[in-house]
Q: What sequence folds into this?
């Protein structure tokens, strides 16, 4: 398959309260997977989670981050995908074991839950909804979240083949479809005919044409999607402050410096004895030292 730019494509059904989103991730997924190696089942789940986070962040009016997190007690005790309002995506998973390629979601995160969190960047109140992970695939778990938390009819189709990820979201908006009362049922039925190969292999406009060629659809300009991490020396210094002065001094005595690494992008920040003294005496941190990638 040819490599396409990572994009988010919005569209709406004219004369009906139905909207849709399509996302395709090639380079973003490659950037995430370049930092860690995962078994096939986990790669698929992480790719689908990134696609889902990108889709969900685009339908929420906010500035900040949308965080999709799964926790449980199976081979994948934790997986997180994060999308900013600027469509910067990142994600990672923690492993305990080597699950088979066909392991369902509820077994990967046994007894676990899905949490979707909206974290405003202005320091406003965070919102979080939680549903149990009892489904075989992530799309069904997200649909359960909307059914329980948002009361908005929402359907989601996700796919990942290890090299690219893609997703399609349909949502019925509040209000009466006076001009086309059957629009939602028709859209849901048509979208349900999409295959994972088509979702991964066709471009957004091709998917829309393939599914809805008899519908009156308005397609908006596509938005770029990319891998991005908002880590900083200051953020990692906050983690260091959480260790406490005594423990920080013990690490310095043993290692000569303290290294703090971002789990998402792999960037490592170094703190020497002067940095640590300044951090704990003044609550601040000096100019960045050498940053490793």
A:
């Amino acid at each position: 398959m040819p490599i396409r730019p990572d994009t988010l494509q919005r569209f709406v059904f004219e004369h009906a309260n139905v909207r849709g989103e399509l996302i395709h991730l090639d380079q973003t997924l490659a950037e995430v997977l370049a930092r860690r190696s995962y078994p096939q089942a986990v790669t698929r789940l992480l790719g689908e989670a990134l696609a889902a986070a990108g889709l969900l962040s685009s339908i929420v009016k906010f500035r900040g981050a949308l965080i999709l997190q799964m926790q449980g007690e199976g081979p994948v005790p934790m997986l997180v995908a994060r999308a900013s309002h600027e469509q910067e995506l990142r994600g990672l998973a923690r492993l305990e074991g080597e699950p088979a390629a066909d392991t369902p979601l509820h077994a990967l995160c046994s007894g676990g839950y899905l949490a979707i969190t909206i974290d405003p960047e202005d320091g406003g109140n965070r919102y979080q909804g939680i549903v149990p992970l009892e489904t075989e695939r992530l799309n069904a778990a997200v649909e359960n979240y909307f059914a329980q938390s948002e009361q908005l009819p929402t359907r989601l189709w996700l796919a990942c083949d290890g090299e690219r990820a893609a997703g399609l979201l349909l949502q019925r908006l509040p209000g009466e479809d006076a001009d086309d009362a059957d629009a939602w049922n028709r859209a849901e039925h048509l979208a349900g005919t999409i295959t994972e190969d088509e979702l991964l292999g066709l471009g957004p406009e091709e998917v829309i044409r393939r599914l809805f060629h008899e519908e009156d659809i308005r397609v908006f300009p596509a938005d770029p999607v990319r891998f991005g991490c908002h880590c900083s020396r200051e953020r990692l210094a906050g983690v260091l402050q959480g260790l406490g002065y005594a423990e920080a001094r013990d690490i310095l005595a043993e290692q000569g410096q303290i290294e703090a690494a971002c789990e998402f992008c792999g960037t490592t920040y170094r703190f020497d004895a002067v940095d640590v003294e300044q951090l704990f005496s003044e609550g601040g941190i000096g100019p960045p030292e050498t940053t490793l990638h």
In short: The first strand starts at residue 7 and ends at 13.
